Amino acid sequence: MVRKALVTPFQKFVRIESFSGMLLFGATILALILANSPWAEDFHELWQFELGVSTSGFELIKPLILWINDGLMAIFFFLIGLEIKRELLIGELNSVKKASFPLFAAIGGMLIPVLFYLALNKNPESASAWGVPMATDIAFSLAILTLLGKRVPLGLKVFLTAFAIVDDLGAVLVIAVVYSESIKWSLIGIALVLLAILVFLSYRKIHAKALRLVFGIIIWYLFLKAGIHPTIAGVLLAFTVPIRQRIGIDTYYERLCEIVEDIKVKDDGKPPLLTKDQIEGIDDLESWTEKVQSPLQQLEHRLHNWVAYLIMPLFAFSNAGVSFNSDTQLDTFLGGVIVISLVLGKLVGISFFSWLGIKLKLAELPEGVNFMQIMGTGLLAGVGFTMSIFVANLAFSGNDLLLDSAKAGILAGSFIAGLAGYLVLRFANKKARQ
């Protein structure tokens, strides 16, 4: 019973991410079809349509694609921040023993692809895109694992999720340090003061939703105007959300029993309408239920579906439309470097560093997992899609040729990595059963 209680939330997370991966795949295919159809020009112009607010003293007008990449993706990064905080405090990364194996894998999965890219790339104009092959698209990767069904042990899914979250943290740091423009420190100072206020409220276990929302919008805007990519504001805001409940579960249970007893319906023959005391009791129940829930867990739960089923597919639909007609010029060498860095870089990095951690006796294989499955998962990690395209947008802003070439390489590399990982994991499972 205890095992079921522990496993079920993770299995639900896997199901959401897996279906999100399928939506991402569908959105990508649709974007590619439209980008290479008679409606290609209209499709590309759609994302350049400008929206925003303009008054005598304030103006914020951006193309639709930037509202998605800078605005909606800040919510995506906010969710990543919540997941990272949860994993660091109470999840798979909250102790050295738990974190050691996925941590070794994540370090190799970030470092080796970058070294592959830097070693193979010969064009100074594309040198700044070394962050493209770093991260793993957890939605796509888990979707592929799900296709394998019960052939894949739960420990392998937990391992993939844990090192993908560390990968995301690495990508966030790279975006903050490398892909931000000249910084206006005065605006950052104001944003940090607002963040400090939210941290203080979190310390006092005060979860003022309206204030947090208003401060969040202001901090996002300050980061945007300060020259640091505004998605970083999403991550920092996530770390200010309290993880502890305002009351314990025992207190909640006692109060719940009292309220249920008070609002219990008595069969007195009267119409089935609630009395004033019953209505007040139900309102009281809602208030206590709010207090017993972790604000971080509550936000994560509410945002997960929006991010998985709307924001990420919309990002894929707006960013994956690469034209491949006869007039299109692509830097095939750059695309090839990205393919090799994603596929071989991730495979070598994750496999070697995982083996190294085991040999040094600093880590151990998850229960029920063999090393062939680790190699298959290392290939799946080459599905960089969402984060890789996001970094490519930052690295090649204003250079459509290199951006389209990078996107083509990311799509090809992700497809090859996903297919190869699927086949290796199928073979690894058959070998394990023999």
Walkthrough of the structure:
The chain is mainly α and 434 residues long. The chain has 2 domains: 2-180 and 229-244 and 294-433, Na+/H+ antiporter like fold (Up-down Bundle), CATH 1.20.1530; 249-289. It is 72% helix and 2% strand. The protein has 16 helices and 2 strands. It has helices spanning 2-35, 40-46, 64-90, 96-120, 138-147, 154-177, 185-203, 209-226, 231-238, 249-263, 276-292, 295-319, 332-359, 371-380, 385-395, 400-433; strands spanning 50-54, 59-63. It has a two-stranded antiparallel sheet. Strand 1 and strand 2 (59-63) form a beta hairpin. The two termini are 31 Å apart.
- Computed over alpha carbons, the radius of gyration is 24 Å
Q: Which structural class do you get from the secondary structure elements?
A: mainly alpha
Largest sheet: 2 strands, antiparallel
Helix content: over 70%
CATH architecture of the largest domain: Up-down Bundle
User: What is the CATH class of the largest domain?
Assistant: Mainly Alpha
